[in-house]
Amino acid sequence: MQTRRQNMKQTVALVGALASTGLLPLPARAFNKKAFEAKSVLDAAKAFGGDTLVESKEVTIQGPDIAENGAVVPLGAATTAAGVKHMLILVEKNPNVLVAMFNVSDAVVPNFATRAKMGQSSDVYALAVMNDGRALFAKKEVKVTLGGCGG
What we know:
Residues 1-30 form the signal peptide. By secondary structure, this protein is of the alpha+beta class. Helices cover 19% and strands 38% of the residues. The protein is globular, with a radius of gyration of 19 Å.
């Protein structure tokens, strides 16, 4: 009779073997180290294949003008442009600029929302990386108040 520990070891070994052959795709394979280490908006765009930044009315960013709690700032990004590969939400003055990345296909409506942590007031970007290499963006300034006093 096999113990639970022996069973777990065999399962982990099997999953590892399948993952190394490519038969079992793991989410970690989608990790883009350059993007998560990017210190600027342009660097993050380049990490996802965007070579030129172009401001566009086809991309919109949603967020509060004043965030009373920088720990949970609601942000949203959307686009009406065709041929979008990725949608990014970026906070310019965060230690790591990239907040969220969403893969887009023809079956996906490119309208996303999330919450981000912001340590200070900053410009927030919604960036649509296109299949042709362009990166369309919209930006908005979000002010973070200290102590949640709203002033």
